[in-house]
Amino acid sequence: MNKNLIQPIIVLALICLFVSGALSLVNSKTSPVIAKAAEERAAAARKEVIPQASGFELLNIDNLRGKNGIPPTITEIYKTTNNIGYVFMISSAGYGGDIKLICGIDPKGTIIKTSALNFQTETKGIATPVFEDQHQNQYTGKDKNLHGVNAISGATISSTAYRRGIQDAFTAFDIIMREKL
Predict the structure, then answer these.
(1) What is the 3-state secondary structure (H, E, C) of 32-62?
(2) Helices (H), 90-155
(3) Closest by alpha carbon to 90, among 172, 163, 8, 169?
C-alpha cells in the first residue's frame, strides 16, 4: 500500500479515538446530573398534581400488565405515602408523537389534577390550547366518565390523545383498587 494512503487513515483513526474518549468522559460526568435533574422535575410534577401528598411511593406494576391489565400508556404509578391518592405517568400517542401526561386521582376515583409534561411534537398553535390550563382544568373533579370534558376544535387528535391517556389512568386506577396496592 501507498504510504500516502496509510498516514491519513491512522490520523483519522486517532482523531476518532480521541473524540470518542472525550465524549465518553463528558457523558460520564453529565449523566448523573441530568438524571438527578429529571428526577427533581418528575418529583415536582407529582407534587403539582397532588400538593397535599407527604411523599410518593413507586408501585411495581409489571405483574399487572398484559391482556386486560394496566394499559401500556401508563408508564409509572405512584401512591402517596399519606394515602390521599395516586399519580399516573402517561404516554399517549398524539398527532406528532407521544404526549407525556401526569394525572392525580384520589382514592374515591376523582381527578385531583392533570397536566401535560411534554407535548412539543404536537402542531404549534393549533394544538396549543389542549395543553393550556383552561382545557386541562376541565378534568379536575371528574370521575372516570369524564362528563363535561370538551375537545378543542381543530386539535381533535391531540384532544383525543389527552382524553384517552386520562381514561387509561382510570383503567389502571380500577386495577390498583382491585389489587389493593
Answers:
(1) HHHHHHHHHHHHHHHHHHCCCCCCEEECCCH
(2) 133-136
(3) 169
- In angstroms, the CA 22 to CA 27 distance is 9
User: How far is it, in rounded angstroms, from Cα 34 to Cα 41?
Assistant: 11
Q: Which grid cell is 128? A: 396549543
Distances (CA, A) of 24 to 15, 20, 27, 112: 14, 6, 5, 43
- Note the pLDDT of residue 120: 62
pLDDT band at 165 (very low <50, low <70, confident <90, very high): very high
Is 0.85 topped by the overall pTM?
A: no
Nine-digit cell string for 170: 382510570
Res. 125: pLDDT tops 70: no
Name the amino acid, one letter, at 37.
A
Contact call for residues 103 and 169 (beta carbons, < 8 A): yes
Q: Express each pLDDT in 9-28 by its tens digit.
A: 888 999 999 999 999 989 88
